[in-house]
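Researcher: I'd like a structural prediction for the single chain below. Treat it as a standalone chain; there are no partners to consider.
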Amino acid sequence: MKRTILALLGALTAVQAQEAIRGFPPQHVPAQVEREKQVRAIPEGQRIRQYLRHIAADPHLAGTPESQAIAQWAARQMQNWGLDATIEEFEALLPTPKRRVVEMVAPKRFTPKLAEPVIPEDPDSGDKGQLPGYNAYAADGDVTAEVVYVNYGTPDDYKVLAEKGISVKGKIALARYGVSWRGVKPKVAAEHGAVGCLIYSDPREDGYFAGDVFPKGPWRPRDGVQRGSVMDMAVHPGDPLSPGWASEKGGKRLPLKEAATLQKIPVLPISWGDALPILESLEGDVVPEDWRGALPVTYHFGPGPAKIRLALETNWTTRPVHNVIVRIPGAEYPDEWVLYGNHHDAWVSGANDPVSGAASLMETARALGELRKKGWRPKRTIILALWDAEEYGLIGSTEWVEKHRDLLRRNAVAYINSDSLSKGSFGSGGSHTLEQFVAELARDIVDPATKKPLSELRRPKQNAPKDFDPVRDFRITALGSGSDYTAFVHHAGIASLNLGFSGGVSRGVYHSIYDSVAWYERFGDPGFQYTEAFSQLAATALLRLADAPLLPFEFSRLTRTLSEYLTEVGKLPAGGKVALDGPRHALARLTDAARSCDARYGEAQAKAAAARPEALARANRHLFETERAMLRAEGLPKRGWFKHHFYAPGLYTGYGVKTLPGVREAAEAEDPAEANRQAAALAEVFDTLRRKIEETEKALAAL
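Model: Treating it as a single chain, here is the predicted structure.
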């Protein structure tokens, strides 16, 4: 297998040698291609398997000695590879369940299991120390009330309920996982007066409707439960008690009652096996077809006669968080930082989420260490991170960014993030100034299954234009939230990417005890080909960002995408009431500046080999500081922590992105006055970015 991959790498390198690499003058490309060939030959899937088996052998919830032990082990491994690895500690509010009670008291009595059974084919399903199913940051309480089925629990679902004359005030909302992030469901329920919320996993989303369930297949079994945080991360991620500043031992913390991101009502996740008797006991009108799951029951709205007692009591404790930080010093520009991270904490064993990505990162680190032994020194400093407490609310990465925010704003070039990895298609999202960079990566990395370049797999299967070009027409998505890139891009204004492979089947065991080594080796990435391929991709990306004479930023793709976003806002039902001429004119000026700068970049790239180091450093600083110009110090309405004005997670989508979020969300809320204020602010951001790009062009012209 290894020889086959090496042969493919060699064949691809011959093709790549004929291609330009953004940021490298033509005479530098052959040496860069050879170095990339060397680094991509180092990662080994079987080593990744070994790391995964060690990390996922036992539960390692953030804040526990087991999670600390994993951080210490990973740091030692990287030190053994000759890398400078340290552990940076923070503290955060990391609640765990003390008491969980769910009882159906009418029209019949039923006590849910609230437990996931051991599966003999999965030895880790019986591990000691497993966290029971719960939702972190749910409110304590003891309530008894009738149940209303609210579908996915989105704002649009409550509009349907209102049309039917159904209220959840004083009731317990029963929502199914899917469509919106889990934290949105209790948030919206509480806003409509509900006193509690249950969230269940319907088999239509991730169970037998999708395919065979574990252990026969990869999908969620009857009693599988999706744990997870319900922190209101659209307000701010990180420690709820230290919004905007790092939470360290002995540091300032808010009182619990002042924390803005805690839920207001009790919330608990349950399996579909536990939800079925409740759904069977609901009456009222039959729900619309798109509200129906895959359970063998007629879905009714309620309310009642099903009545539930829901009682929660929580250990509201502050516990330690351990980030592993690896630094490879830059030889020429040590104060320009290229960063790559993945988290290491898990709700239980977490073989897929996050250990697959963490193990791949470790193999990337080993590859870079081996390359150093052969004499390579990166021009820029490379920082690798294994974050802790991501599952609770992106805590390890957020606290680290808040602590080092000023240094990062001065020095950070870009941040690359990964999370869960499995066999499947290549996914890429991020800052559109790096879209060309990702397109070239996808051109030069092959898919392990098809042996085709990743970019070729993006070619439309039907109605593809005759002139379709897999690099020119390659697109990345915008970033919302849900992983550790959030603080980098949305708060600190650092160009960021979230990259990975996924086939979707991991939804079947997501955040359950069955996300185990046994599941992953059967269904996730059985041959560890995709985790190996991602290690190769990440190493290639780091080499290009660390060693490019000119950083590979590009602006015309960004302005094209911004134009699409602005057109979308204008087509919203309330979009016609928003004064968008100001942003349109500002974007037109920005587009002209972007085209001019990109043309100048091409000239500068050709001359970069002979340019003075101080002139290159000046031009590169302007290039990577462009993302900072997309922020406003006051942030977005109702959530000043989020400062990026092109991308943000939606207030009512959670993970899902809202592009041009200030004006878009105001228009969607049919608040024309606020939308007009945000449109004016957006025009100012466009103009600020234009001026920064014009300064960048001048710096490029001086090479």
